[in-house]
UniProtKB/TrEMBL annotation:
SUPFAM superfamilies: EF-hand (SSF47473)
Pfam families per the UniProt record, alphabetical: EF-hand_5, EF-hand_7
One example GO MF annotation: calcium ion binding
Residue ranges of coiled coil: none
Family: Belongs to the CREC family.
Gene: RCN2
Domain EF-hand: 61-96, 97-132, 186-221, 232-261
Protein name: Reticulocalbin-2
CDD domains linked to this entry: EFh_CREC_RCN2
Length: 316
């Protein structure tokens, strides 16, 4: 089967999106080292459209909804928001909107509206036609072969998510397919998939050399900057037991997007910018004093939460 460049390029694009990590968020938050205040707003409110809607609210309604969100973030009800409380809230926000997006996608993918998404329906939504590859036959074209590998991985993940072995995925299974890192029964699959890709010697671990992939050091030259950065990540971020290799749990912290790290970074940023009395926590008064900053952060999904009753409704 021969494919044109469009599906292959799309497959590669999807892979890039799937492995987006804290480094991508850092670049968005501080492009060329300069802080983007609108990035903060989008973390709390959702995006420019939600920001525009927020501006239309009366000042009284803005304050009312914002105070309700502050109250919910304050888990121990002591009147202050700590780094831990802000980080937990931002992580919850990430997960909530990821689940909401998956639910919306489910409706789009379920072409015959039977309450499940089949593999054929997934293909039609993604590529406008059903694609089928021979698992045992590699393609000569490098770009097409790359797409074949990605497509086969998607199919394996789809089959793993299908717990009841039905003809398609129900909503819960579709969420597991789209966000395997959020579902316990998919964790083993995520780890195994990463080992199959990176554990070249089959010992059940990923060494530094395997982590760096095809890079081969030139003894006559210094390592390029990107290799130094990757080595530092391996040694200081992932190899927790410092044994020079990544075990399955350490591997998981590498291959799954680190929302926790992003959330902690944003929580620290808010405290650094808004903590007027240097007590390393935020009062309601400090937040209202810096309302624009708070509403340009991930704590309210860039203001989106002020339009989502899930976050500001008192009874929820």
């Amino acid at each position: 089967m021969r494919l044109g460049p469009r599906p292959a390029a799309l497959g590669l694009l999807l892979l890039c999106a799937a492995v987006a990590s804290a480094g991508d968020a850092e670049e968005l938050h501080y492009p060329q080292g300069e802080h983007r205040s609108d990035y903060d707003r989008e973390a709390l409110l959702g995006g420019q459209e939600e920001v525009d809607e927020y501006v239309k609210l009366s000042p009284e309604e803005q304050h009312k909804r914002l105070k309700s969100i502050i109250k919910k973030i304050d888990l121990d009800s002591d009147g202050f928001l700590t780094e831990s409380e802000l980080s937990s809230w931002i992580q919850m926000s990430f997960k909530h909107y990821a689940m909401q997006e998956a639910k919306q996608q489910f409706v789009e993918y379920d072409k015959n509206s039977d309450g499940s998404v089949s593999w054929d329906e997934y293909n039609i939504q993604m590529y406008d036609r059903v694609i089928d590859f021979d698992e045992n036959t590699a393609l000569d074209d490098a770009e097409e072969e790359s797409f074949r590998q990605l497509h086969l991985k998607d199919k394996k993940r789809f089959e793993k998510a299908n717990q009841d072995a039905g003809p398609g995925l129900n909503l819960e299974e579709f969420i597991a397919f789209e966000h395997p890192e959020e579902v316990d029964y998919m964790m083993e699959f995520v780890i195994q998939e990463a080992l199959e890709e990176h554990d070249k010697n089959g010992d059940g671990f990923v060494s530094l050399e395997e982590f760096l992939g095809d890079y081969r050091r030139d003894p006559t030259n210094e390592d390029p900057e990107w290799i130094l950065v990757e080595k530092d990540r391996f040694l200081n971020d992932y190899d927790k037991d410092t044994d020079g290799r990544l075990d399955p749990q350490e591997l998981l912290s590498w291959v799954v997007p680190n929302n926790q790290g992003i959330a902690q970074e944003e929580a620290l940023h808010l405290i650094d910018e808004m903590d007027l009395n240097s007590d390393r926590k935020l009062s309601e008064a400090e937040i209202l004093e810096n309302q624009d900053l708070f509403l340009t952060s991930e704590a309210t999904d860039y203001g989106r939460q002020l339009h989502d009753e899930y976050f500001y409704h008192d009874e929820l």
